[in-house]
């Protein structure tokens, strides 16, 4: 049984910043479970509102279903009891249903339902996909709208009526009108999560659209800065938010934007910079080159925390 009911998961996640830890690999690209578990324990001490194991930043797309279950189980075992662990589900509907069952058996508290693999689908197909996963588990389900699975507000509203354990909507599109329509239609029925790459960039304007929290990849390696930024957003301290954007977040994005896939690669590079290496990224991603790594190191060193461990 999960430690949190579906409504409790949504309430807890809405209360603070969300952690999306990387997945540790050895040089041969096998899963480094001891290093991963040590890091989960370390991250658990910084006061995040939820931990999303093997998500996008955790390279879900490169893991086998068995590896996903292994990573989720490791996260559940190391995460403090008061911190909900959200597991991923994705690929085709049958695989997503299997992953949902495995997550529940592993003791996860909720599910992040990622877009189906490869193919485009109409709204009725996407809705059937969500219904099947919600019906397969008692866990609270958060659907992730992005790429080939962009949900219309009318579709989400029907699903919210039909699926009591659909508790959240994560936006990876950045369409302000879509978010306005969705929140206007559903209000507080769902938890809304900002899920664009480097979500800090959009956190302040999205707060006004009902998006109360966001996924922070940089929490992996500069957790104190990530929490300070989140506090400034919540307090609507515009001066502090824009200062942090100017000093760190936007220069960080400039490095991230140099190559496709760097939204994940730069996080593992950040781990290396602060002395908590998590190994290489798996293909089809590539790691930052030495010059880019040096640029990131300079950015981190300029923070008040100085990238300390």
Could you explain the architecture of this structure?
This protein has helices at residues 6-13, 33-43, 65-78, 93-106, 123-135, 153-162, 176-186, 203-207, 223-234, 238-256, 262-273, 290-301; strands at residues 18-19, 50-52, 85-89, 110-113, 140-145, 166-171, 191-194, 213-216. The chain is α/β, with parallel strands linked by helices and 309 residues long. Strands 1-2-3-4-5-6-7-8 form an eight-stranded parallel barrel, surrounded by five helices. Helix 3 runs parallel beside helix 4 (93-106). It starts with 5 loop residues before the first helix and ends in an 8-residue tail after the last helix. The mean pLDDT is 96.
Order of helices and strands: HEHEHEHEHEHEHEHEHHHH
Q: Uncertain regions: pLDDT < 50 for 5+ in a row?
A: none
> Which structural class best describes the helix and strand composition?
alpha/beta
Task: Report the biggest beta sheet as strand number plus sense, adding barrel if it closes.
Answer: 8 strands, parallel, barrel
| End-to-end gap | 34 Å
Radius of gyration (Å): 18 Å
What is the compact description of this entry?
This protein has twelve helices and eight strands. By secondary structure, the chain is α/β, with parallel strands linked by helices.
Protein topology:
Blueprint: H1 6-13, E1 18-19, H2 33-43, E2 50-52, H3 65-78, E3 85-89, H4 93-106, E4 110-113, H5 123-135, E5 140-145, H6 153-162, E6 166-171, H7 176-186, E7 191-194, H8 203-207, E8 213-216, H9 223-234, H10 238-256, H11 262-273, H12 290-301
Helix pairs in contact: 2-3, 3-4, 4-5, 5-6, 6-7, 10-12, 11-12
